[in-house]
Amino acid sequence: MKKDDKLLLSNHLCFAIYAASREMIKLYHPLLKELGITYPQYLVLLVLWEKEKISVKGLGEELYLDSGTLTPVLKRLEERGLIIRERSKEDERSVIITLTTEGNEFKEKVTLIPNAVFDKTGCNEEEIKSYNKEIRNLLNMLTTEQ
Prior knowledge:
Elements: H1 13-35, H2 39-51, E1 53-55, H3 56-63, H4 67-79, E2 83-87, E3 95-99, H5 101-110, H6 113-121, H7 125-143
Antiparallel strand pairs: 1-3, 2-3
């Protein structure tokens, strides 16, 4: 690679990931809008359906988001009646997030979203798994302390 080739946009992995991420989120947007939630709210719900309850700190670690970004998302989900935020009885500094009954029932409304999005990508299941594995490997390399 020539010295100036490193400055070509087409050679920047970060841009390819950024642009692909934006396009992927665009696929989710109309599906989630129909349900009245945003993509970040959807991600929070996915974690909670998997874990049932989690601290704000733990949620931030799962989603690679800081509490300043999460707080407004959680506030809106709480206003919708999908989650409850409570101070931990063991550690008052920690806030625990749990699903409400409505939050658990909301899962039924989103079950078709992943397949609808995958269908729109034109990728088959094996390709999706392969991309996911490779991107997660890259994410792990970027977040592992050297």
